Amino acid sequence: MPSPYYDQGRRDAEEGTLNQLFYHTYHDYKRGYDEIVNGPPKPKPNFLYFLIPALLLVGLAGGWFLRDRGVLSTQPTPLVVMVTVTPVTASPTFPPFAIATPAPPTPTQLVLEIGGEAITLEQVRIRPDPSIQGEPIGALDPGEVITIVDGPRSGDDYTWWLIESAIGQGWVAEDFIQAR
Fold first, then answer.
1. d(C-alpha 19, C-alpha 165), whole Å
2. Which intervals hold domain SH3b (predicted)?
3. pTM exceeds 0.85
4. Of the listed ranges 1-10, 73-82, 88-97, 171-180, the one predicted with least confidence
5. Quick check: 37 pLDDT over 80?
6. How far apart are CA 88 and CA 98, in angstroms?
7. Domains in the chain, CATH or no CATH each
């Protein structure tokens, strides 16, 4: 027995009106409406019900036919090794000769000396005595040119030089300056 929505869908299709809410909500309404508008549902082709089992049988028959084609062996395939001897012919060799490699030039060692100029490598503190104990009297920025006045002296594991700079005289550690 058809549902009331199915009958309602058929009536609306015959009258040419469509209730969108019913059409999208009730399956029976849509089925009744579509049967009038599109005609009765077409039967599904029955050959598909036979095609799938037939393909399955063909695949099984092919597998049965091919099952004896080759026997898998668990034994390794023997490897035949043939050794061929290639005669070695002597090729002419040239006597080795020495290539003179010039020695790299020795860099000129710049030495700090009294009366010479030096340049600061990084910020360096100027001290009143050749020791880290004294309070710094100033500091020089990297790249400043200074004049060596006296030295060297040893103190507190440093070598100290008395220098003259734009801010005055004082002692600086050798590790922070370089001869110019």
1. 101
2. 124-178
3. no
4. 88-97
5. yes
6. 29
7. 4-38 (no CATH), 117-179 (2.30.30.40)
